[in-house]
Amino acid sequence: MVKDRVLQVLTDPTSAEFKAITHNRQHDTGCGFVNASNKLGGMVGYRAFVAFPDGEVRFQPESLSPERKTWYDAALVYCDAGDTVSPFWEVMFDPATSSPK
Question: What is the pTM of this model?
Answer without folding.
Answer: 0.77
